[in-house]
Amino acid sequence: MNDVAEVSIADRVKAIDWPRVEDDLDQFGCAVIERLLAPSECDALIDQYPRDALYRSRVVMERHGFGRGEYKYFGYPLPDLIEGLRTAVYPHLAPVANRWNDIMKIDARYPARHADFIERCHRAGQTRPTPLILQYHAGDYNCLHQDLYGEHVFPIQLAILLSEPGRDFTGGEFVMTEQRPHMQSRAEVVPLKQGDAVVFAVHHRPMQGTRGAYRVNLRHGVSRLRSGHRHTLGVIFHDAQ
């Protein structure tokens, strides 16, 4: 079996069991894709974190009440690996996003190609790239939130764990909550290994009830790191204002 890094991003994405991913998104609002990145690719992204020239901005989360830790947004041009992920993954998610919006009676529809969607964002003044790397140390955490950056928001995103649980850190689980109308919130803890990705709903998704479909509201975050350090790559498909 070839090393993951020897297979192109496009071929890796093509080989994913997308019907299973779509089914998990429909049922749980998230889906895990195992070994999307190789350990060498994860380590290279972590090693690049101190290279400020790659990034357009740095956010210290505690200053804004977002939690503890920090993250950096990549600038354009994006690294080839990240641009490749955006380009290859988006066409598999756009039909899910369109179907969800149709069920929830939301007018927005998404083109088949990511480049066409980015062009729409840029025409609306959303020109800043949104892929980012998050860095946590012991005691850090990410409050539950939604990544909404402007009028044009793609409703599904991707996060890839770059560090190895148990070796690099303990704690720091990816967490989602789902708020159904007139009900208590449901929590989903998503276990990941180095190189694993989680695809998840950014804001809301449809759910079928006895009286038809309704919207549930979702938020995501990271629980407190018990020890070590944790890095995550976030791939958001819309650009920001």
Automatic annotation (TrEMBL):
UniProt-recorded Gene Ontology molecular function terms: metal ion binding; oxidoreductase activity
Matching InterPro entries: DUF2086, Oxoglu/Fe-dep_dioxygenase_dom
Record key words, sorted: Iron, Metal-binding, Oxidoreductase
Domain called Fe2OG dioxygenase: residue spans: 127-240
Ranges in coiled-coil conformation: none
Gene3D superfamilies cross-referenced by the UniProt entry: q2cbj1_9rhob like domain
Family according to the record: Belongs to the iron/ascorbate-dependent oxidoreductase family.
Name of this chain's protein: PF09859 family protein
Species annotation: Caballeronia humi
